[in-house]
Protein backbone atom coordinates (compact mmCIF):
# COMPACT_ATOMS: atom_id res chain seq x y z
CA UNK A 1 0.00 0.00 0.00
CA UNK A 2 1.26 3.46 -0.91
CA UNK A 3 1.69 5.80 2.06
CA UNK A 4 0.70 9.31 0.94
CA UNK A 5 2.56 11.02 3.78
CA UNK A 6 5.74 9.12 2.95
CA UNK A 7 5.25 10.07 -0.70
CA UNK A 8 4.90 13.75 0.22
CA UNK A 9 8.13 13.60 2.20
CA UNK A 10 9.99 11.93 -0.68
CA UNK A 11 8.76 14.51 -3.20
CA UNK A 12 9.56 17.45 -0.93
CA UNK A 13 13.03 16.19 -0.03
CA UNK A 14 13.89 15.65 -3.69
CA UNK A 15 12.68 19.17 -4.45
CA UNK A 16 14.82 20.58 -1.64
CA UNK A 17 17.86 18.70 -2.92
CA UNK A 18 17.31 19.93 -6.48
CA UNK A 19 16.80 23.55 -5.43
CA UNK A 20 19.87 23.40 -3.19
CA UNK A 21 21.96 22.36 -6.18
CA UNK A 22 20.31 25.07 -8.28
CA UNK A 23 21.30 27.68 -5.67
CA UNK A 24 24.87 26.38 -5.71
CA UNK A 25 25.10 26.67 -9.51
CA UNK A 26 23.64 30.21 -9.50
CA UNK A 27 26.01 31.24 -6.69
CA UNK A 28 28.99 29.88 -8.60
CA UNK A 29 27.90 31.81 -11.69
CA UNK A 30 27.59 35.03 -9.66
CA UNK A 31 31.00 34.48 -8.07
CA UNK A 32 32.60 34.09 -11.51
CA UNK A 33 30.67 36.84 -13.33
CA UNK A 34 33.89 38.83 -13.83
CA UNK A 35 36.34 35.93 -14.16
CA UNK A 36 38.27 36.50 -17.36
CA UNK A 37 40.75 34.16 -19.00
CA UNK A 38 44.40 34.26 -17.96
CA UNK A 39 45.80 34.85 -21.45
CA UNK A 40 44.63 36.59 -24.65
CA UNK A 41 42.43 34.45 -26.87
CA UNK A 42 41.42 32.03 -24.12
CA UNK A 43 37.80 31.46 -23.15
CA UNK A 44 36.64 33.11 -19.91
CA UNK A 45 34.33 31.47 -17.36
CA UNK A 46 31.27 29.95 -19.06
CA UNK A 47 27.90 30.17 -17.30
CA UNK A 48 26.79 26.84 -15.85
CA UNK A 49 23.25 25.57 -16.30
CA UNK A 50 21.14 22.94 -14.57
CA UNK A 51 18.24 20.93 -15.96
CA UNK A 52 15.69 18.91 -14.01
CA UNK A 53 13.47 15.98 -14.88
CA UNK A 54 10.84 13.82 -13.21
CA UNK A 55 12.19 10.49 -12.04
CA UNK A 56 9.64 7.80 -11.14
CA UNK A 57 9.76 6.22 -7.68
CA UNK A 58 7.81 3.05 -8.37
CA UNK A 59 7.82 1.85 -4.75
CA UNK A 60 5.93 5.00 -3.69
CA UNK A 61 3.93 5.50 -6.88
CA UNK A 62 5.17 9.07 -7.39
CA UNK A 63 7.80 10.98 -9.32
CA UNK A 64 10.64 12.90 -7.72
CA UNK A 65 12.65 15.83 -9.03
CA UNK A 66 16.09 14.85 -10.24
CA UNK A 67 18.94 16.71 -11.87
CA UNK A 68 19.03 15.42 -15.43
CA UNK A 69 21.98 17.46 -16.62
CA UNK A 70 24.60 19.94 -15.48
CA UNK A 71 25.91 21.83 -18.45
CA UNK A 72 27.20 25.13 -19.75
CA UNK A 73 25.35 27.91 -21.56
CA UNK A 74 26.23 27.59 -25.23
CA UNK A 75 23.68 30.14 -26.47
CA UNK A 76 24.48 33.34 -24.57
CA UNK A 77 27.39 35.16 -26.22
CA UNK A 78 30.39 36.50 -24.34
CA UNK A 79 30.60 40.26 -23.97
CA UNK A 80 33.70 42.24 -24.86
CA UNK A 81 35.08 45.08 -22.74
CA UNK A 82 37.94 47.42 -23.42
CA UNK A 83 40.52 46.87 -20.65
CA UNK A 84 44.09 47.13 -21.99
CA UNK A 85 45.60 46.44 -18.54
CA UNK A 86 43.97 43.02 -18.23
CA UNK A 87 46.28 40.02 -18.86
CA UNK A 88 43.57 38.51 -21.09
CA UNK A 89 43.38 41.62 -23.33
CA UNK A 90 43.99 41.11 -27.04
CA UNK A 91 46.16 43.39 -29.22
CA UNK A 92 43.36 45.98 -29.32
CA UNK A 93 42.94 45.98 -25.52
CA UNK A 94 39.63 44.08 -25.63
CA UNK A 95 38.81 41.37 -23.09
CA UNK A 96 36.26 38.63 -23.57
CA UNK A 97 34.03 38.59 -20.47
CA UNK A 98 31.95 35.69 -19.08
CA UNK A 99 28.44 35.15 -20.43
CA UNK A 100 26.96 35.58 -16.94
CA UNK A 101 24.28 38.18 -16.23
CA UNK A 102 24.27 38.73 -12.45
CA UNK A 103 20.65 39.98 -12.51
CA UNK A 104 19.45 36.76 -14.14
CA UNK A 105 21.46 34.71 -11.64
CA UNK A 106 20.08 36.67 -8.67
CA UNK A 107 16.52 36.13 -9.94
CA UNK A 108 17.26 32.42 -10.34
CA UNK A 109 18.76 32.32 -6.85
CA UNK A 110 15.69 34.01 -5.37
CA UNK A 111 13.33 31.64 -7.20
CA UNK A 112 15.32 28.60 -6.06
CA UNK A 113 15.24 29.86 -2.47
CA UNK A 114 11.48 30.27 -2.61
CA UNK A 115 11.01 26.82 -4.11
CA UNK A 116 13.25 25.37 -1.40
CA UNK A 117 11.13 27.09 1.27
CA UNK A 118 7.91 25.79 -0.28
CA UNK A 119 9.26 22.24 -0.22
CA UNK A 120 10.37 22.73 3.39
CA UNK A 121 6.86 23.87 4.32
CA UNK A 122 5.43 20.81 2.58
CA UNK A 123 7.78 18.62 4.63
CA UNK A 124 6.73 20.35 7.86
CA UNK A 125 3.05 19.88 7.01
CA UNK A 126 3.58 16.19 6.32
CA UNK A 127 5.40 15.78 9.63
CA UNK A 128 2.56 17.58 11.40
CA UNK A 129 -0.03 15.30 9.78
CA UNK A 130 1.93 12.21 10.78
CA UNK A 131 2.12 13.51 14.34
CA UNK A 132 -1.61 14.22 14.45
CA UNK A 133 -2.36 10.75 13.06
CA UNK A 134 -0.24 9.13 15.76
CA UNK A 135 -1.98 11.23 18.41
CA UNK A 136 -5.39 10.15 17.08
CA UNK A 137 -4.35 6.50 17.12
CA UNK A 138 -3.14 6.79 20.72
CA UNK A 139 -6.36 8.45 21.84
CA UNK A 140 -8.57 5.92 20.07
From TrEMBL:
Primary location group: other
Top-level division of the source organism's lineage: Bacteria
Keywords: Bacterial flagellum, Cell projection, Cilium, Flagellum
InterPro entries: Flg_bb/hook_C_dom (IPR010930), FlgC (IPR006299)
Location within or outside the cell: Bacterial flagellum basal body
One Pfam family hit: Flg_bbr_C
Positions of the Flagellar basal-body/hook protein C-terminal domain: 92-136
Protein family according to the UniProt entry: Belongs to the flagella basal body rod proteins family.
Subunit and partners: The basal body constitutes a major portion of the flagellar organelle and consists of four rings (L,P,S, and M) mounted on a central rod. The rod consists of about 26 subunits of FlgG in the distal portion, and FlgB, FlgC and FlgF are thought to build up the proximal portion of the rod with about 6 subunits each.
Name of the protein described by the UniProt record: Flagellar basal-body rod protein FlgC
Amino acid sequence: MIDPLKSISAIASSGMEAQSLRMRVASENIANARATATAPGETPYVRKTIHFSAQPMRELGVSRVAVSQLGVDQTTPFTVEHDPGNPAADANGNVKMPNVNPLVEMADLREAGRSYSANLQMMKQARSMISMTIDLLRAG
